[in-house]
């Protein structure tokens, strides 16, 4: 029921028209990534006939934890309009320090991991100070850090590979499934996610309406929550066909959700976007630009260190190759493919999750058809280039639509 002062709820035609205007105006959102994931699944299922089997999809959700955590840190740095080339080396050095302290020096594993992650955070602090206080370009600072921390990794490991403590914390990061395969965990998370989303959005809509601001209708919010429930329930069903809900996936989702909340719902998050949108404007608005920059580099280094522990868990040890190869490029590609802009001021931590799903799906599919490593690099590079081109085109479309 409406009153003369209450606008009528938008119909389906209005919603479709608004969505069409957003797409043509360059606001693509997650549409390209979702379409890409569907195409990848169809192609590899047609070629291998078992890409969509539950055990393979479960493995994909396990393997995305390490690079996904690093990619979340990359998203924060890219929002600032900067780049951090050291994150792969930070991941490798963190895994090496934790393993060596726990095995060769007899430290309790939990304490060894605390020291290792604190060291990773200190690396980020050093990068941030040199960049924000001294004025050295972030590219140069983190390039030097990439070389230095890779050297530290080799120095700490000394003779080579160090195995994780048997049945320890790191060993369990990749092999643990909540409830030992109990299907209730996956179903609970699948139902909880859209429910919490709906309640949070409903609270926001009511607060906006009370303040006299435009707000989404309850029916629209319910539709969005229902759209979210479809993939979450499907994922729960797939995971429960195999081993259940992996701990690694839960950790990644927890980091994505918490960092997304901080970026979108807190004053600190708004300052990060403000600095990325324009340093001088942010400074004139009273924002401590140096403090924001330092904190972002510390956070990205911490997440890289945490990602390094998951890499060590997956391979069962810390070695001199961990964090090398295409680890850094995969994390950067994941952030950009997921929709984070290379030009700063725009991005979401969900970008990291969506982007790493694309990259890991491609990698897994190519492994299943026994494609050479060189082919994998070329395809990943092509996908990254396509994402950057799409970002550039969407920026120009938004600029053009704002002028009309």
Short structural description:
By secondary structure, the chain is an all-alpha fold. Helices cover 75% and strands 1% of the residues.
Structural commentary:
The chain starts with 11 loop residues before the first helix and ends with a helix. It has 17 helices and two strands. The longest helix has 31 residues. It has a single domain, classed as ABC transporter involved in vitamin B12 uptake, BtuC, CATH 1.10.3470. α3 packs across α16.
Keywords for this entry:
17 helices; two-stranded antiparallel ribbon; 75% helix; mainly alpha; disordered N terminus; ABC transporter involved in vitamin B12 uptake, BtuC; 2 strands; 404 residues
What does the radius of gyration come to? 22 Å
Major sheet summary line: 2 strands, antiparallel
Decide which structural class fits the backbone.
Answer: mainly alpha
Strand content: under 5%
User: What top-tier CATH class fits best?
Assistant: Mainly Alpha
Return the CATH architecture.
Orthogonal Bundle
The gross shape turns out to be globular
Q: Give the low-confidence spans.
A: 1-9
What percent of the residues sit in helical stretches (DSSP H or I)? over 70%
Number of DSSP strands?
2
Secondary structure layout plus pairing:
Blueprint: H1 12-24, H2 31-48, H3 54-63, H4 65-79, H5 87-103, H6 109-134, H7 138-157, E1 162-163, H8 169-175, H9 183-210, H10 218-240, H11 247-265, H12 267-277, H13 279-284, H14 289-315, E2 317-318, H15 327-337, H16 350-368, H17 373-403
Antiparallel strand pairs: 1-2
Helix pairs in contact: 2-16, 3-16, 4-11, 4-14, 4-15, 4-16, 5-6, 5-7, 5-14, 6-7, 6-14, 8-14, 9-10, 11-12, 12-14, 15-16, 15-17, 16-17
């Amino acid at each position: 029921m409406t009153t003369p002062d209450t606008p009528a709820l938008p119909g389906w035609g209005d919603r479709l028209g608004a969505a069409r205007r957003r797409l043509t105006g360059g606001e693509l959102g997650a549409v390209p990534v979702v379409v890409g994931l569907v195409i990848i699944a169809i192609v590899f299922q047609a070629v291998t006939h078992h890409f969509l089997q539950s055990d393979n999809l479960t493995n994909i959700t396990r393997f995305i934890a390490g690079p996904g955590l690093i990619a979340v840190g990359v998203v924060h740095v890219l929002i600032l309009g900067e780049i951090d080339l050291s994150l792969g080396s930070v991941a490798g050095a963190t895994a090496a320090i934790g393993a060596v302290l726990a095995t060769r020096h007899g430290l309790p594993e939990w304490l060894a991991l605390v020291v290792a992650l604190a060291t990773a955070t200190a690396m980020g602090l050093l990068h941030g100070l040199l960049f924000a206080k001294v004025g050295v370009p972030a590219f140069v600072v983190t390039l030097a850090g990439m070389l230095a921390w890779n050297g530290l990794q080799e120095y700490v490991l000394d003779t080579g590979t160090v195995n994780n403590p048997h049945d320890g914390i790191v060993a369990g990061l990749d092999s643990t499934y909540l409830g030992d395969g109990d299907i209730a965990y996956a179903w609970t998370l699948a139902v909880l996610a859209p429910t919490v989303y709906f309640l949070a959005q409903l609270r926001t809509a009511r607060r906006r309406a009370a303040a006299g601001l435009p707000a989404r209708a309850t029916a629209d919010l319910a539709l969005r929550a229902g759209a979210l429930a479809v993939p979450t329930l499907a994922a729960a069903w797939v995971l429960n066909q195999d081993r259940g809900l992996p701990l690694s996936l839960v950790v990644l989702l927890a980091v994505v959700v918490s960092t997304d909340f901080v970026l979108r719902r807190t004053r600190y998050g708004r300052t990060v976007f403000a600095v990325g949108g324009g340093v001088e404007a942010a400074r004139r608005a009273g924002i401590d630009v140096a403090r924001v920059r330092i904190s972002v580099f510390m956070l990205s280094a911490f997440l890289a260190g945490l990602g390094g522990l998951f890499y060590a868990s997956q391979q069962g040890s810390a070695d001199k190759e961990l964090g090398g190869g295409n680890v850094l490029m995969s994390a950067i590609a994941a952030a950009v493919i997921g929709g984070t802009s290379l030009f700063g001021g725009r991005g979401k931590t969900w970008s990291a999750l969506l982007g790493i799903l694309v990259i890991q799906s491609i990698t897994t599919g190519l492994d299943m058809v026994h494609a050479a490593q060189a082919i994998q690099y070329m395809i990943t590079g092509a996908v990254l280039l396509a994402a950057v081109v799409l970002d550039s085109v969407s920026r120009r479309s938004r600029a053009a639509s704002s002028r009309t």
